[in-house]
Specification:
The protein is α/β, with parallel strands linked by helices. It contains 20 helices and 19 strands.
Length: about 550
Amino acid sequence: MADKDDLGRSSDMYVAFAFAAADVLLELDTQGNTMFAVGAAMALVGRGAKALTGQPLVKIIHPSDHTALSQALKQMAGGERVRNAVLRILRPDGKASEVTMSGYRHPSVPDRLMVALGHPGGFHAHKEDRVGETGLLDKDSFQAMAANLLESAAPDDPYQLTLVELPKIDALSGDSAAQEALTTELGNRLKALSVGGDAVGQLDEGKFGVLHSAAVSADSISKSVTQAAAVVLPDAPPIQATLATLMLDVADVPPEEAARALTYTLNRFALEAENGGNLADLMKDLQPRLSATVKQMNDVRNTVTGGDFDLMFQPIVDLWTGVVHHFECLVRFKGEDNKSPYETVTFAEDTGMVGMLDMALLERAVAFMRSSVANNDSLKFAVNLSGYSLSDPTVVRRLKEILTTTADLRKRLVFEMTESAQVRDLKAVNDVIQIIRKQGHEVCLDDFGAGHAAFHYLRALKVDNVKIDGSYIKDAMRSNEDVSFIKAIVGLCTELGVTTTAEYVEDAETANLLKLLKVRFGQGWYFGKPLRPSSDDIRTAWRTPTLGWNKGLLHFTKG
């Protein structure tokens, strides 16, 4: 029969829990000596549980993590819960491996600590994600870690993010070695205060972020800065950093969306700082910025799930024949008919919500194409898909599900790939594009020549059409450089067997120039503004001052 411990539970339960989680459970005194050990110790740390008993835990910890261990034990002894601190252990063969450490002060024996060691999981930063030799996370990796921790945080004990800005230090001017030394020293001290012992990032020169529990005070972070500077610059006067702390408590949205809200807020914050914003003032506004982002995400989600949007349709005309090739489906949010949806769509993309929006628009477009006012072989419609959506496995699965139901719309349903952020895995996106094309749907690459959508996209993505960004079209009548660019695009696309579309065609002169340049299709107010069908009768619904039916095809009738 098992003995009972002070918690009133049998030691058998500890053993069962330890083996179920493939963890090692330890009971330590406040100096870090192991009083009791149980679990899969051999698999995790290369030693049996009995070999750990009676030994100081620090004995198996890599020397570079001794400070982090000491800080973690101090936090536990002070009544603070430590969760998933990442430490490197030294195995008997001399090799180092990572474990996670979680723990808390024993609820019944004040001078004892209950500690669990486990296998690391979730976000893991590699050497290439670090800033130089400092060991600090770079900006993107720090944001990824923050998002990962936010998803796993206990709702009753949210993490905090403190931004640290160092003042200009004259003694460091032009001394890159001393600058790196200070960054490394400060980083090591901040790591000891951070969640998991690694949640510190360098966001810019002299600007850092640290993720920590609520028990870590701003004063302790400020002291770390002062102490680090004193070590590297013993003769310099004490420095005072600027600090701002953000409570990562966003209970109004799902955890994965809360993580996206944080990333979006930090990106906007960094962008404004780069553009000359006063960092100290910006930091004061960070909490309301996060709250505003969460509210806006809620608004977008409610709009999409509630179907509070409409589609409008803008014609794209064959410049060589005058036939309407297809209509682009454009979203308009209800109550905002006279407002461009660009900001909302861009926000959805930047916060990772655009996949939800894209699939809702696709489903609406598919239903519309089957309605009596649009169900005609000569009427084709293009739906936008963000490059972000085509990079998201969850959205891609939903897209494939929808495409299994659209066999009747092959040759009529067209897709335009749009993106406001660079697509990192072009091969994966191209794989999805080829699935779409094999099912009989044309794919267009939108906004070619603007932002990230450049020649390497055309090389990596096999598409049917390229839409030349309107910034080149608007000035084509006055700019020889833009004409040369258009010629180059058309020539390359012709070699690749890809047709071209010009947007922002506003007058007959531009349309005629584009024909001379051998651009195939045109889109713009010259051919027609975005419209809604004017009736339920397909024969009259699409007639406008610029469009009319002729021999079963919709034609551009002006000019």
